[in-house]
Design goal:
The chain has 90 residues and is an alpha+beta fold. It has one domain (4-89): YlxR-like (Hypothetical Cytosolic Protein, Chain: A). It is built from 3 helices and 5 strands, in the order E-E-E-E-E-H-H-H. The protein has helices at 48-56, 59-64, 72-89; strands at 4-6, 13-15, 20-25, 28-31, 41-44. It has a 3-stranded antiparallel sheet with strand order 4-3-5. Strands 1-2 form a two-stranded antiparallel sheet.
Length: 90
Amino acid sequence: MEQVRTCVGCKTLGTRKSLIRVVLVNTELTIDEDKKLPGRGAWLHASKKCFDLAVNRKAFSRALKQSVEVNEKVLALAIEQAEAMMAKNE
């Protein structure tokens, strides 16, 4: 049975394979490509819509239990990394 996670952006369920994991590394949001980095992670779909929803709802801070500041540069880089990762897995 596939492991199921909830997207912090749109709040829908998805499998680990269909979602990306985001963690804090040195206070910066980082895409966990192998889904093995230590610490708390936030799961979401690799779409700009879900990233925007997560930022607007302050879902990263809540899921990671730490204050997270997300600026446009970090957001654009995270979306780019996520889309590249999902394309590689197809």
